[in-house]
Amino acid sequence: MLKQERRRRRRIQARNGSITDGHSQPGERSTCSGPHLPEDIWCLIHSLMPLRDSARSACVSGTFLHSWRCRPILTFNEETLGTGVKILKIVILDYYKVNACRLNSWLESAIRPGIEEVTLLLSEKHRLEYIFPCSIFLDGCGNSIRYLHLSYCTLRPTVGFDYLRSLTKLHLFEVCITGDELGCLISNSFALEKLELRYCLELFCLKIPFWLERFSYLRIAECNKLQVIESTAPNLFTVEFFGEPVQLIFGESSQVKNLMLEYSFEPNAVSYAITKLPSIAPHLETLTLYSTCERVNAPMVADKFLHLKHLDIYIGDDDDEPVAFVYDYLSLVSFLDASPALESFSLSVDPDDMKHDSVFGDTSSIRQIPRHRHDRLKKVQVDGFFSAKSMFELICHIIETATSLESLMLDCIYGEETGGGTVRCSASKFSKCRRRSKRMILEAHKALSVINRYIVGRIPPAVKLSVGEPCSRCHAIDVELL
């Protein structure tokens, strides 16, 4: 069967005019066999061919394909690159040697009026060695560029830089550039819509001017020296921030509607959000918070998120030091009370990280707080539901006060996809569930018992309850509940 398949492929290649060579398999008929020459001779022949012919021959010849991979010199000039290049992407890995003059020559040859996308991805060792030549954008060469993506280099635009007028998206990864220099780069890019900055460690202050009317998306990740983000752009709708806490200034006319915050090893992101964000971003509609270290409970506040519809909160604990603090999940009711338009609420908790007081025992002493009606809340989901008393109290409060509640999802296994049944691994593309600690599995069984004993009977008939149970195969364990 294998030989028949090979012969069939050869017949197809012969009909299409493909070239076969000395690499044909024994017993196969070659349509155009080449001479049996040493490999270094083939490589020499290939290296003497024009780049375009060399690439074409590699597409149809196994021998030339092999020597193409060994080709020591590639010459990029106006003839080889042509004059109609729309997209240029250069990726240089760590083990490559970069000649700055030659790389600049490649860029100068390719970046001509009409080019739309430029991507230069260097490796980490080149970050301090290579300075990207801003001069290549002169004479109208940069005014057609819509997307610019640079990594591991230095970028030093100066005052008066005015050569990226069509730029809509800018992505800088581990690029050495100051806040003032970034301002020079984008201040005249009136078409700019998206800006993504990752690990740009020379940034202390980022300012987005008000005249960038199309600017709508900002993503900052691990720019750990950044202290201030100030934007007066009138149509900035989405901000995603990951890193050390910064001062956010969005201006009186802020239209930020979607905000994601994740602080690196800094405590109390949830408390900060409820106390500060209503005034910073009053038009928020979607808020996502990642708190890896929460050391105070969410306080009651007077300010409101009047437009907030979707709230997602992750609470974990990445602090290796032992902490006696037990987080009060019932305090999250203050977020619900501050969000009268809230429609969906998602809470994710890693039980492996959290300390808690168990609900098992007398449930008649559960706390009740003033019952504000959450008459727009329709969907609630808890990923990592466990047997903490305050978690149980939070769910009871929601059941009693969310008069429009339609669905309640309680997943006992944190971060595991559920198939809607007891056999979770049947819903996964893998043959078994992800590895979990014995502590998490034991806690999942306890959480399931809490749901069955104390929650199921409280669910109104109009509410659909979905429960993510421990996997009956991967999470089986002997559990003795108190």
UniProtKB/TrEMBL annotation:
Annotated Polar residues bias: 15-33
Biased segments, Basic residues type: 1-13
Region span, Disordered: 1-33
Domain At1g61320/AtMIF1 LRR intervals: 82-472
The protein, known as: At1g61320/AtMIF1 LRR domain-containing protein
Stored Gene3D superfamilies: Ribonuclease Inhibitor (3.80.10.10)
A Pfam entry, by short name: LRR_At1g61320_AtMIF1
PANTHER family: FBD DOMAIN-CONTAINING PROTEIN (PTHR34145:SF78), OS02G0105600 PROTEIN (PTHR34145)
